Structure formats: structure tokens, C-alpha cells
Here is the input.
Amino acid sequence: YSEGHWWNLVGEWLPAAGRFPGGIAEPLRIIREKGMVPGLWLEIERMGIQCPLAAEWPDECFFLRHGKRVIDHHSYQLDFRHPTVVAHADGVVDRLVNEYGVGFIKMDCNIEIGAGTEFAADSVGDGLLEHQRAYLAWLKTLFVRYPELIIENCSSGAMRLAYSLMEQHTVCSTTDNQDYLGNARISINTATGVTPEQAGVWSYPLTDADEESVIMNMVSAMSWRIYLSGKITEMNPNLMALIQAGIDGYKEMRPFIPRATLHWPLGLVQHNDPWGAYAFAAEGRTYLSVWRFGAQTSIEISCPWIADGKAVEVSCFYPASHPVPFTWDGAKKVLFVEMTEENSARIFRIKG
Here is the structure.
């Protein structure tokens, strides 16, 4: 969006000619030609202190304390109670959708602005509350104009994961964590805070990854909404095949996620737990994800939600090309799983 010292200058949200010599519409057009929906990142509540608009607008457009604009990370916080701010935000989104053909907006917020704003408020907290109410009201108008638009709630990951915002967003980022082992633990517990169909989970296998780390990256995202990232085009064919198999498996799982009942057969995972498990069940099938983090090589997982006396078919669903030893005790409704490698994961399908 900007040349030079990037954070100082953001706020107009215009394409940077140096980064997109053919115009931002060019890569977005190619994305659409590939049958996908193009998206752009946006941080609409933020304006860099060197943004030209910051010199033109009155102070009342920004958070104020002690009579001065509040600054964090070389940026001001916009106050959505002001009509100039709302008109500007409307214009930015209209341009992204109508001129660029954007169908997805990653709406981020990466500044920590503190207690609030004193302008037109009984207290700084009152100013913050009224700004938030105005911002939420503005979001609602976007979906009136663009009902098919998908907007992600992001704030350096999930730092504003609250349902006042999630009521207005299709999906959220659950974390910006880049350690796939930590990401797995976050994913297992994610549904305690947000519905699985709204939970966007990063899967970004590294180009120097081994097979088990790629598998865990995919397993840790497939029961939610996959955010597939990283330089996957540089993966070797074996790793690419695992990623493709994960996407194919996710497409089978995806229709059941919004209707499913959720289960944590080993309980919510703790930081040092050697194993983790998460399952969702719907319409006679269960997808059970299992993670091995520690030295223990096997685990028994009770599945009491399976109907008594019901014959089921159990398989290592993902990746089917890399199965691990398991046995199913139908009478006890217990799955016994063995994983020989530490830091590995699999998804089992129980069907019937």
C-alpha cells in the first residue's frame, strides 16, 4: 500500500506503484482467473503519522488524550464516531470491492492505543466504548452493501477475539504464532472461544520441512478453516502431495463442521501434555484428530459419543498414504493409537 517507511505512511490504502508495476488489479485478476476469490489485507482503523490525510483531517478524527493525538507504532487511531472517518473507510472498501474485485478482506488491528479517547466523552473509557459501537455499526453497513463479502477479524492474531466483533465477521485469525507445535495446541483448544467454522488456522509448512511436520501443520488446521500459507510452490513432490491430500480431505470434512458436536476426549490440552485429541461428530461420522508431542508412543482414546452397539468403520483418514498402527475396541468404544515418531499427528475417521 505504501512506499518508503511503510508504517509511517499507511492510511490512504492506495496501491504502491513500485510494488505493483502492472497495478494491483493485475494479480487480483489472475487469482480470479484461477477460480479463486482474491483478498487483501487492510488495517482501516490505523493511519500513519506521515500519511497525507493525517495533516488534512481535524484532530477530532483521531483518538485524543491530554489534548493531543495518541500515537502508537508511528500511527494514529481513527475515531469512527467522526463522519470524515466513516466516509473515508467507506471509500476504501468500495474501491477494493468495486474496482479491484476483492471478495475477502483481512481486517487487522496491530496498534495498542491504550485506555481510549477523551474527545466528546465522559471519560477515555467512554470514548473507547462509543468508538467501538460506531465501528461495529459501520461494519454492519458493509454487509448490507456487499452481502457476499468475507471479512476476517484479525488483531495480531486473535487479540480481539470477542463476539461483539465475531457477530460481524465471517472468520477470525486464531493466532499469529509461527511454531507449528504451539499452533497445534492452540488449535485443539480454539473451539472453547470461537465456533470452528469461524476459526481460521494457519498451516504454513516450511520448504525445508520433513513429512511429519507437514502432516501436523495440515492436521492442526483441517478441523477448522485452513489458512494455507508459506512457499508451497517450492515444496518437493512428496510434501506437495501431503498438502494436496490435506486439502482434498478438508473438502470432505468441511460440510460437517458447522453442524458437528465437539469432543475433547483427552481434555483441553496443556502446554506440556504429551498427547492431544480433538473430535467433531455429525451425521454418523466422527473425525478424530490425534497429536503426539512427547515421548510416550501410544495412547488410548475413549469415544463415548459413539452409539452403543453400533458397527463402525475406522480408518486413518489423513494422510491415508502414511497410516499408523491402531485398533478399535467396539465394545469399549476405545481407539488405541501408536505413533512411533515424536511430534506427529493423524486424523481418524469413524464412520457408521
Notes: The CA atoms of residues 177 and 183 lie 6 Å apart. DSSP finds nine helices and 19 strands in the chain. The domain at 6-259 is CATH 3.20.20.70 (TIM Barrel).
